[in-house]
Amino acid sequence: MVAASIKKLYAELNDEVYCLYNIPDSMRQAIEETLGERPPELIWGQMEGKTVEQKRMEHVWRLLSYVGKRVVETDADGIVPFMGISGETALLERVRQELAALFPGHDINEVEVEITNELKRKVKGYKRTNSIWEWLVDVFFDYHVALYKHRPIIWHISSKPDRGEATFAALIHYHKFDKDRIAKLRSSYLREALNVFRRGQDMPPRQCAPTTGWSGNQGRRGRGA
Question: Which domain holds residue 3?
Answer without folding.
Answer: 1-43
